[in-house]
Design brief:
The protein is mostly helical. About 50% of the residues lie in helices and about 10% in strands. It has 4 helices and 2 strands; from the N terminus they run H-E-E-H-H-H. The chain has a two-stranded antiparallel ribbon. A hairpin with a 5-residue loop joins strand 1 and strand 2. The longest helix is centred in the N-terminal third of the chain and has 17 residues. The relative contact order is 0.10.
């Protein structure tokens, strides 16, 4: 972004950033220092299933999957091994 501190340069920088976020093929999410979502690209809407209006202002941790316990991982692994080794 611009090194110039003029209000015009800041407005141009915001316009450029907004254009990049709105047209990028990949999900882009901007957050502040506390994790609050400031912007959410259309591609991010597709990836995460939230619309901009319902996620902006929330904490980015809302996008993290829930933790999985070790016992669940082991159960899935065991079930997968049974499925692969069973006769058909």
């Amino acid at each position: 972004m611009s090194v110039n501190n003029s209000p015009v340069a800041d407005a141009d920088d915001r316009t450029l950033l907004s254009s990049i976020i709105e047209t990028a093929p990949d999900a882009i999410i901007t957050i502040d220092a506390s994790g609050e979502i400031l912007s959410f690209s259309p591609a991010a809407e597709k990836v995460f299933g939230y619309e901009q209006g319902e996620i902006i202002g929330h904490n980015v941790s809302q996008l993290e999957p829930p933790p999985v316990s070790w016992s669940t991982v082991m159960f899935r692994k065991t079930e997968d091994q049974r499925w692969r080794t069973s006769e058909r």
